[in-house]
Specification:
- The protein folds into two domains: 140 residues, 3-Layer(aba) Sandwich (Rossmann fold); 71 residues, DNA polymerase, domain 1.
- The protein is 41% helix and 12% strand.
- The chain is built from nine helices and eight strands.
- A six-stranded parallel beta sheet has the order 5-4-1-6-7-8, covered by helices on one side. Strands 2-3 form a two-stranded antiparallel ribbon.
- α8 links the parallel β6 and β7.
- Its EC number is 3.1.3.18.
- Pathway: Organic acid metabolism; glycolate biosynthesis; glycolate from 2-phosphoglycolate: step 1/1.
- This is phosphoglycolate phosphatase.
- InterPro entries: HAD-like_hydrolase_sf, HAD-like_sf, HAD-SF_hydro_IA, HAD_2, HAD_sf, PGP-like_dom2.
């Protein structure tokens, strides 16, 4: 397929980072006297930004408890950010094939599009030494988070390409729905954080089992 630029999600697509989010969330929950949660639960809850993750932790469920007090939520989010800042990049790792794959895609303009806050995103990219691969970095505090298409459209604008000439690569429903709303094709990867939902039901153009599978899709352009 012919594309002029590639947009990548971060957590669950390029980087396995759930361990440090799990640690930070449990420390924050303990700070506000709430029970800790499991690694598996956090793996199903990530993908919609810090505020949503903390609310899910306080609710101990993917569905957020509407009765959570604003004061409690604000306090827990603040504590999460303190703990997460100390942990970012310490327990994260690139998925197999990511570093080689990014080099192989060196000729294509690339943007990182993540719901993660910019400060934490830049810290993680520096730790993993992959910031150099991206021409543009768009983060959750730049506008409405995925599944809203705003961040994807912003990335395309900053890359100087039309949305229909870009392709999104992500691991979740949010990535797929954002791309579809932006009217751009999407490659979904099955190894990340899909919140327990089969990605095939959202009809991505491609569904890949490992990162290296995306390289021939993007390099064999017609």
């Amino acid at each position: 397929m012919s594309v002029s630029g590639v947009l990548f999600d971060l957590d669950g697509t390029l980087v396995d980072s759930v361990t440090e989010m799990h640690l930070a969330l449990n420390l924050a929950l303990s700070d506000v006297a709430f029970p800790v949660v499991s690694h598996g639960q956090v793996q199903q809850w990530v993908g919609n930004g810090i505020d949503v993750l903390v609310k899910r932790g306080l609710s101990c469920d993917l569905e957020i408890n509407p009765d959570l007090s604003d004061t409690l939520v604000t306090q827990a989010i603040a504590r999460f950010k303190v703990h997460y800042q100390a942990l970012v990049g310490e327990y994260a790792a690139l998925y197999p094939g990511v570093e080689v794959g990014l080099y192989e895609l060196g000729a294509l303009p690339k943007a990182l599009v993540t719901n993660k806050n910019r400060a934490f995103t830049l810290q993680l990219l520096q730790k993993l030494n992959i910031a150099k691969h991206f021409d543009v970095i768009v983060c959750g505090d730049d506008g409405n988070k995925k599944p809203d298409p705003y961040l994807l459209k912003l990335a395309c604008k900053q890359l100087g390409i039309a949305t229909e000439k870009a392709i999104m690569i992500g691991d979740s429903k949010s990535d797929i729905l954002a791309a579809q709303s932006a009217e751009m094709p999407v490659i979904a990867v099955n190894y990340g954080y899909n919140q327990g939902e089969p990605l095939s039901q959202f009809n991505p153009q491609y569904l890949c089992e490992q990162f290296s599978d995306i390289i021939p899709i993007l390099t064999n352009q017609n």
